[in-house]
Design brief:
single chain, 16% strand, 233 residues, hydrolase, alpha/beta, Rossmann fold, 7-stranded mixed β-sheet, globular
C-alpha cells in the first residue's frame, strides 16, 4: 500500500458492494491501449491522448480507436487481447474475501466483451455481475457497441457508464467501494464511499480532493478492507 487519504468508515448496517475496473486494474496492463499499440494503426496516438485528457468522451475515443482496425484481423486481435493479459496479484484473494464477507462484487469495465469474458471465465464470476462494452465484427471495420449507456443523470458519453450501474445500489443501503485506475473511473470515484486508486485515478482524486487509498495489488485492498472490518467490530 503506497498511501492513504482519510476515507469514511463503512456503516455496519449497510451492505458492501465493490465496483471493480478491469483494464489496468484486474489486469496489469490496459488491454485496449495494448491492442492498439501492438497493431499500431496510423493515427491512434492522438486519440488516446484526447481520451486521457478528456477532450474526447470515452465512447467517442474508443469507438474511433477500434475503427482503425479492419475486421479481417478479428482472429489476430482477439487472440492477442486474450493471450496478452496478466492478472494483478491477489485478485482471487479479493473474490474469496467477498464470498466470505458477503460483499457483492461487480466488474464494471470500459473494456470489450471479446477479451473481458474469456479472461474472467476461470474466476466463476456470474455473467450478470460483469458489465462491459460489446463488439461487432460484421462490417469492414471493428465497431464497438454500448449495451450499458449513460442514464439521465450522466452526460459524459461514457460508453459503459459506471455511475449508472452504481446508482442501482443507493447510498442509503449500500457502502459503495470503487477500485480503479483511469479515466473510466473518474465519475464513479465521485459517487463512491470508498475509493481504491492507482495511476491516473490517484492523480484525479488528488486534483478533486477525493478521499482515496492507493494500492499496488489486490492484497493491499483485502488488507485495507479487513482492517476496516476490525475497526467496525
Amino acid at each position: 500500500m503506497t498511501s492513504q487519504h482519510e476515507q469514511p468508515e463503512a456503516s455496519p448496517s449497510k451492505k458492501q458492494v465493490i465496483f471493480c475496473d478491469f483494464d489496468g486494474t484486474i489486469t496489469v496492463n490496459d488491454n485496449i491501449v495494448a491492442i492498439i499499440k501492438h497493431f499500431n494503426p496510423e493515427g491512434w496516438e492522438p486519440i488516446v491522448d484526447d481520451i486521457i485528457a478528456q477532450r474526447k468522451s470515452i465512447a467517442e475515443g474508443v469507438g474511433e480507436l477500434f475503427r482503425l482496425l479492419p475486421t479481417s484481423m478479428e482472429r489476430e486481435v482477439v487472440d492477442y487481447a486474450i493471450n496478452n493479459v496478466r492478472i494483478r496479484d491477489g485478485f482471487q484473494e479479493l473474490l474469496d474475501y467477498c464470498a466470505r464477507s458477503g460483499t457483492e462484487f461487480y466488474v464494471t469495465s470500459g473494456g470489450i466483451d471479446f477479451f473481458v469474458y474469456p479472461v474472467l471465465a476461470r474466476f466463476g464470476i456470474p455473467a450478470d455481475h460483469i458489465y462491459c462494452n460489446g463488439s461487432d465484427f460484421g462490417g469492414d471495420r471493428i465497431e464497438i457497441t454500448w449495451p450499458h449507456p449513460c442514464d439521465e443523470h450522466c452526460t459524459n458519453n461514457c460508453g459503459m457508464c459506471k455511475t449508472t450501474i452504481m446508482r442501482n445500489f443507493p447510498p442509503e443501503t449500500h457502502t459503495r467501494i470503487l477500485i480503479g485506475d483511469s479515466v473510466t473511473d473518474f465519475e464513479g470515484a465521485k459517487l463512491a464511499d470508498v475509493v481504491f486508486s492507482r495511476s491516473h485515478l490517484t492523480t484525479k482524486c488528488e486534483e478533486l480532493g477525493l478521499p482515496h487509498t492507493e494500492y499496488n495489488d489486490f492484497h493491499d485492498i483485502v488488507a485495507a478492507l479487513q482492517q476496516k472490518e476490525e475497526i467496525r467490530q
